[in-house]
Design a protein that fits this description.
D-Amino Acid Oxidase, Chain A, domain 2, oxidoreductase, alpha/beta, 11 helices, oxidoreductase activity, Glycine/D-amino acid oxidase, FAD/NAD-bd_sf
Length: about 425
Amino acid sequence: MTEPSRIAKKSTPYWWEAAPVRPLPEQALQKQVDVVVLGAGYAGLSAGLTLARAGRSVAIFDAMNPGEGASSRNGGITSGSIRPGFATLTRKFGERTALAIEAEGKRAREFLYGFLKDEGIDCDFRLTGAFRGALGHDQYDVMARAADTLAKRLGIDTYAVPHAEQRGYIGTDFYRGGVARMDIGGLHPAKFHAGLLRVTLAAGVTVHSHTPVTAIAREGAGFEVTTSAGKIAARQVLVCTNGYTDGAVPFLRRRLVPVRSRIIVTDPLPAELMDRLMPRRMMMSENRKLGFYYRPTPDGASILLGGRDSSFAGDPVEPILRLRDGLTELFPELCDVGFTHSWFGNVAMNRDMLPRMFEKHGVLYASGFCGSGVVWAPWLGRRAAQRLLGERVDEPSAFDMRPPAAVPFFNGKPWFIPAIIKGYAIQDRIALSRAKR
């Protein structure tokens, strides 16, 4: 069997070349703080920063290096997308709720872009716009109507791109048109995390790396949190562990399924080839259940492509081959291209595929970002902190809702993922065969 290293030169994230994740200096454990936060990714740091600037003492605990999980392993696309499309949301919840969800996505993206500017975080952010491809003309019609609704009702800069104009956005004939959204861009996720960590530490938050929380227990009006370094008392607890949730929070672990997302990066490509394949250097995705997401690297020299990984143990080669085949299906001229990096990380899925914050037994949770954490994690981390502070906000969050439903017969090990991924692949093949192309 071909080893992953024979397909890609490195099995570590491309992003770690410029912004490696590192442990923080060991610090003494405080006896008591106002808030304990689990998880030092985007959500936990955003919450800690908001709390500290409001005068609260905060200790954040991470079982790994800060940012070593999804925060430095993702594709760096600021989509804020919701896995159920607008048409599905409308059918399931009604147009009012669907529009509220999309409107919050707009606010979340605007918050992120303003935050990067205000805090001086240099993470190669560019508001490039994004293109989403349709498999057939019938799918294109549904997507075009949704784009028209969002443009008219919410003022989002989005519009349909007919097949005849597609080559001006992406150098492939695989799709039959698509939709462009100009409020989406790309950034360097590890640099973003490093900048967020910097400003959070400067605000006075204590961040403990390689210090897993093992238990959370009620203690009077507050909590006793047990960590690998000892126990700490807190008035409030916020959990932001997402795809790396473990046994410390069994209630959440039964509701969030960790699903691997795999990414590959090509060798640098000739400039004229990049100009032809990605003429606008936009972020890219497609309307398949197992759809790929892809983009140019920040230097514009290579293509990064990601998708779901059906494995849940080891580092098998099959998911890498699937991405390679997907890339060449889109761009046949890349059939002989080499790859510099291939890696995976966990995203957190739940049964309705909606991010959310919720409270259970006095503990607040901000989690379940379903593969769109670049936007949703810092936004919901901040909103959760505002809730802990008792702040009044202009508009309630559409994601402040009940906990997600538990997944039957699941307690941390996603044994059923290969079957689900295979089922999605079959549905995609059927959809493609039936699409009016």
